[in-house]
Write a structure and sequence with these properties.
Number of helices: 21
Strand content: under 5%
Radius of gyration: 22 Å
Strand order of the largest sheet: 1-2
């Protein structure tokens, strides 16, 4: 489709653009009149995120569902973006993440009352917009621009807190690591363009399938360099160095958005590029020519192992969840290494349940930080027995045990399908490593649960008071985590539809 014909199918992104411009205008008008904008920027951002999410589902009658059902998808803006079930699935996931993080920000003491609060919500919506573009990118140029768009807004959001040395240091490290990864990625893309003569994913697939054997070495170097950029975005080892410091220094809602939204967008790009781009026309021939499976499998093993071992000694909850997030990227990469439809479906399902349990864990961390001003594990000592702390403690236990992969929670089902995909491709050693790492992870998750339920509160700890609006999202997320551990067939059906990408 041309530009004009593509606009009706680009309305979710246009709504986000309109919302961020509205937030900017509201903030500027309030500043010009010498007053604060109050809750208006956050409210407008929340409404904009909700509108984009609803439009993505097709509720306003746009007809996305009909389009996907009839043709499987379509190209937009001269084959720069693709609209298919895969893109819609990730837009829904990213829209839910954006909506939840805006809601979190409205209740975060780190964000509320800051002099640049309006700018914060503008950057948050802009980052969500860029993630939508990452999920739909069908061209190397668009993929790179979308990834850089997300990175630049993420740097600013990480250093949002003024006069906070920890946030400034985290943003600087994020910028340096991101610049190196982006440079390696675009260098690899230039090699790939030189080899295939096109930036279109479908054209790249055809070009790669027709390469002569003498070009295999160059192809492998190009793919490794591109994988650097994707690995940085999903926090895979050895491109993970930024994650612990950034997760610790950024405001908690930003940390949650990076852990859930940015990681999902990174996997969306990775899957579309490798599974439905490079290997689409001849997966066996390509995988036989270059050792992609051993490479991704090795990265998966190192990522899950380092993430879990490093988390064992962490005393800061944000840093503990940062290393946990690295480990979970390793589990998802196990399914990516399968390079088959079963692996794609396992990754999509895993990211959906990861959204529930990880976002819920960060939500509890924010509530405790608001109430106590602390982020260390000792702040959770006796939480279940303090007035007002029982429900957050139970919810956090559900999320942590789900992250560990215990039944009957959603995390167990997610890991089951990831490991099943690995077994199907005979990656037995990697599946065994994943099971062993899950046992290691249980220790540091259980350590937090022990502190909440088995340790006595510290003397003089005041009662905790939370509003209904702060606890209701926890109820929804924990109920979803429990429900998807028991009734998950409907999500598997949606994942099976989403995994049939349009590559025409």
């Amino acid at each position: 489709m041309g530009n004009a014909e593509s606009l009706p199918y680009f309305l979710p992104e246009l709504l986000l653009i309109a919302a961020l411009l509205a937030v900017l205008v509201v903030d500027l008008v309030a500043t010009a009149r010498g007053r604060t904008a109050g809750e208006w920027p956050g409210t407008v951002a929340l409404l904009g995120a909700a509108a984009a999410l609803l439009w993505t589902t097709g509720l306003p009658g746009l007809g996305i569902r009909g389009l996907l059902g009839q043709a499987g998808g379509t190209w937009l803006f001269g084959r720069m973006l693709v609209l298919d079930g895969f893109a819609v699935f990730f837009k829904l996931l990213l829209g839910l993440a954006l909506l939840a993080v805006v809601w979190m920000s409205l209740g975060s003491r780190e964000v509320r009352g800051q002099p640049n609060e309006g700018e914060y919500f503008v950057l948050l919506l802009a980052s969500g917009l860029a993630m939508f573009l990452m999920a739909a990118a069908g061209n190397l140029l668009m993929a790179y621009l979308a990834l850089e768009f997300v990175s630049l807004t993420s740097y600013a959001l990480t250093g949002f807190l003024p006069h906070d040395r920890r946030a400034g240091e985290a943003a600087l490290k994020y910028l340096i690591y991101g610049g190196v990864a982006s440079g390696a990625m675009i260098f690899g893309m230039s090699w790939l363009f030189g080899l295939t003569g096109t930036m279109d994913y479908a054209g790249i697939a055809r070009g790669v399938a027709g390469l002569d054997p003498a070009s295999r070495g160059a192809l492998f170097v190009a793919l490794v360099l591109v994988l650097v950029g994707f690995g940085y975005k999903v926090a895979a080892v050895p491109f993970h160095m930024w994650a612990p410091d950034v997760y610790t220094g950024a405001p908690i809602p930003v940390t949650a958005f990076l852990a859930v939204g940015s990681k999902a967008a990174g996997f969306a790009m990775l899957l579309r590029f490798f599974h439905f781009g490079v290997t689409a026309t001849g997966p066996d021939a390509v995988l036989g020519a270059v050792p992609l499976v051993p490479l991704v499998a090795a990265i998966s093993f190192v990522t899950m192992t380092l993430g879990n071992l490093a988390a064992l000694s962490q005393q800061n909850m944000k840093r503990l969840l940062a290393y946990s997030s690295i480990a979970h990227a390793g589990y998802a990469l196990l399914a990516v290494a399968v390079f088959a439809d079963a692996g794609v479906e396992a990754v999509l399902f895993y990211l959906a349940v990861y959204y529930l349990m990880n976002l819920g864990a960060f939500w509890v961390v924010m509530l405790i930080a608001n109430a106590t001003g602390r982020e260390d594990v000792d702040a959770y000592r006796g939480l279940a027995w303090r007035a007002g702390g029982a429900f957050p403690a139970v919810a956090l236990a559900v999320f942590l045990f789900s992250l560990a992969g215990l039944p009957p929670l959603a995390g167990f089902v997610g890991k089951f399908y990831v490991f099943a995909a690995g077994i199907q491709e005979r990656l037995y050693w990697l599946v065994v490593a994943g099971l062993g790492n899950s046992v290691v992870a249980l220790y540091y998750y259980a350590r937090v649960v022990k502190a909440m339920f088995l340790d006595a509160p510290a003397a003089g700890d005041p009662p905790l008071g939370f509003r209904f609006g702060e606890l209701s999202p926890l109820g929804v997320l924990s109920a979803g985590t429990l429900l998807l551990g028991i009734r998950f067939g409907w999500l598997l059906d949606q994942v099976a539809i989403a995994s049939r990408l349009f590559a025409g």
